[in-house]
Amino acid sequence: MKNYYIIDFDSTFTQVEALDELVRISLKKHPEREAIYKKIEDLTNAAMEGKLSFRESLSGRVQLLHANEEHLKLLVSRLKKKVSSSFSRNRDFFKKHADEVLIVSGGFKEFITPVVLPYYIKRENIYANTFKFDDKGNIIGYDETNPLSEEGGKVKLLKQLQLQGNIFGIGDGHSDFQLKESGLIQKFYAFTENIARQSILEKADHVTPSFDEFLYVNNLPRAISYPKNRILCLIVGGVPEEAIKVLSKDGFSIRQKPTFEEKYVADVGMLLLGDGEKLDDVQLERAVKLKTIGYLGNSRHKLSHEIATEMGIVVFDDPKQNPRNAQFIPKRMATFINNGDTYLSGNFPSLQLPKVGNAHRLIHIHKNVPGIMAQINQVYARNNINIVGQFLMTNHQIGYAITDVVTEYDPQVLKELKEIEQTIKFRILY
Q1: pLDDT tens-digit readout, 118-127
Q2: Is residue 312 part of a domain?
Q3: For residues 221 and 27, what is the distance between their CA atoms, to the nearest angstrom?
Q4: Residues of the domain holding 308
């Protein structure tokens, strides 16, 4: 059966609530703007949490707007810069599935349409309210006959559409959950990249911290192979808040602890250590999922670089105690996870890589023995893989091979690469 994807706009496709942003634009010079901002935010949240009917919330917010067509132009410009990161990087998904993606929102077409059209969303697949204007271009109301202006409007609309197939809903609010409650959709995914409403999380079939996560669990084409929210990033010791923010903003799953607790050893993917922290050899050897370590200082006598190298773990530290290291080290860690760069690593060959479009990047870390690259390339040749680009750096212990390949290939290739005898770590980057 055909699949359909019903996607909310405010705080889902975009990072913000558009009406909240519009009032900040329209009332920029109003003496009571802060009080009005608060009223609109309260009305928004009350509706999203199911504490107020959508019609009451919408009417109350529109009455407070004092906005016109010029304000809407400024709003659209702002919203285009506020598209949620995980939606933005998965533009290709929308291009390939243009017929199946619907934007369904209690917001307004006047600002939704120009924001989503560049993402290959079809105009006829955008369902939202519309404003009413006076002859001077001032917003004076909205079309009250539109089902999306009513309580349970998304349910009423979907009943009218009579879509035949499997329907998945993605959103952050009560109106999105109502689709699941009505039985009209197969699964409701609570989207939490921008905001997490506890009352909604408790009702969701699946909590998706990013659109990457949704695509991953449904085995759909995506920009990155493994959602960053599934990579556990453990922060240990005295680490400044600015360092934590770098990694949190990038979407990793953050845990902050005073020590490297035993329960995290088997699952940690990234480890950021404050200056002075020591990492036990036995713990390091058992951290089999660990990909990179950041150390805010000189790590040479605090953890074994040799063991890290043997395990394919890239270490970034700052032997010279540079004041910038609070941001610099976590940025290097994120860049390694995102792009494969090992630039300025303390234990790996230093490599900076260009980002390649329309390709998958495969990382193969192996013991530096003769013939490995020949085996790797034999796998590609045997499976008729078209190589877009290839990079190799080595030191006396390991080889670090990056291969960019065309996106169409048999998954058996990945299995064969992992099974090459001297392989230490292998992963698809994107």
Answers
A1: 999 999 999 9
A2: yes
A3: 42
A4: 228-339
